[in-house]
Amino acid sequence: MIQVQRPLIIQSQLIRLCCPLETRLKHASFRQRHHRRLHTKTVTDDDIARLAARPLHPLTLADLIKNGRPPLSASALYNSANFTLSILPARLAHRIQSLRNLPFIVVSNPHIHKIHNNYLHSLSTLLPWAEKEIKTLEDEVKFTEVMADLVQTHANTISILARGFLEARKYISPKEVTRFLDEHLRARIGTRLIAEQHIALHFSSQPHQELSSSSSSEDPSHPSSSYIGVIDTNLRPASIIQHCESVVSEICELKYGVRPHIVLTGEPDYTFAHVPVHLEYILTELLKNAFRATVESGMEREPIEVTIAPLPEDLLCEDNESMSDEVISNIDQGNLDVASKSFTGQDASDTASAVASEMIRPLARSTPGVTIRIRDRGGGISPENYAHIWDYSFTTFNEEQVSSTLSGGSPSKSSSGMDGLNAISGPGGDGANSLAGLGYGLPLGRAYAEYFGGGIAVQSMWGWGTDVYLSLRGVGKVD
């Protein structure tokens, strides 16, 4: 059998991706930065045009678990690698094309240009594999190195784009920035998830467990039996809520000297299948907002009520009419490049027909899911702010706030509503303070929720409090 030495970069990805939440946190510092020189191929304009012309289809959670539970056989592992290879090059080309369709002066900004070059680099590492099929363990290991390099290369995409658009704000309207970012960041969710899923499956496959002398059930880097890659098929929302409460409480006490408390109601023992890191990010953002509102309104003695409500089984199995409108669209997943094409005069009717033709059901109607309600007594959202809760807040900064943010500070609370709670790290590798004050939390959280057919709804009673409803769909029953 071929003896393969795994590069440290993939080892570090395993700990972050495959392990249960507690293990990931314990080994968070074990993120080595080790680069192995990868074989690349020059990316031509013809390559980009050819790949960007391919239609993209919405990704379902079922796509990511179709190879079954780990440990994967060699053939199943090769199927995962080839599936990943079949869809990633076109997705990267779409991102390159969308960036190039922005006004030239915007793309010339060094931060935005860096993101453009990062996508070119990732595509150049994939092109040598584009015309071949992965059939050997040695090829699969090399391909997994490419996936690990892709994940690391794009780790700070969000914060770098934010800085770029802040600097280029004179040349593009806030509305166009919001539209572009919403689409681009949704597409990034899928690209990253596809790569991370294969990396995780790589380590939980039977061939690589046999190659590893340290592989055992006690190995802290060994994935939980409930995991299929980065998907936990036995995900307990109550556990994620309790972890997020602990994190937000610590920061809240550091900032304000007090910490509100949560009362958990509903069905805390309910489990379903989803991506834990996505739920963790969404809940952190929602609890952050609830804690801040509660403290700033002087209601810190009032509990924040979090209710876990599974989607009713009778609704899932019988009420076909009510489920008929639940679809995933390419708009939800950022696959149409509508924002960037708007600069070239794309016809709105063409966009509408494209959206309609690409809608699919997220999963079978028997798919379990959950709704999580977060209720606070923080005084609600003022009418003038309610209309902008889904905007990327930095687009409304004045010049003084822009200068402060670009120099590493954050806008004053009085002018933007930002405070110390915004220092919580976002998903995908951005540093702890890289998104502070940029107002990405809520719109990005909604993108994660909607990506697989879920959503976030906000109901506010001005002068009283706010109810936020997070709905998520699972992957159905996994054999």
From TrEMBL:
One of its GO terms (biological process) is regulation of glucose metabolic process. Its EC number is 2.7.11.-. Its main location: mitochondrion. GO terms for cellular component: mitochondrial matrix. It comes from the Eukaryota. It is found in: Mitochondrion matrix. Residues 274-476 form the Histidine kinase/HSP90-like ATPase domain. Residues 209-226, 403-420 have a biased composition (Low complexity). Keywords: ATP-binding, Kinase, Mitochondrion, Nucleotide-binding, Phosphoprotein, Pyruvate, Transferase. GO terms for molecular function: ATP binding; pyruvate dehydrogenase (acetyl-transferring) kinase activity. Transmembrane segments: none annotated. Pfam families: BCDHK_Adom3. Residues 209-228, 403-425 are annotated as: Disordered. It is an enzyme of class 2 (transferase). Belongs to the PDK/BCKDK protein kinase family. This is Protein-serine/threonine kinase. The lineage of its organism: Eukaryota, Fungi, Dikarya, Ascomycota, Pezizomycotina.
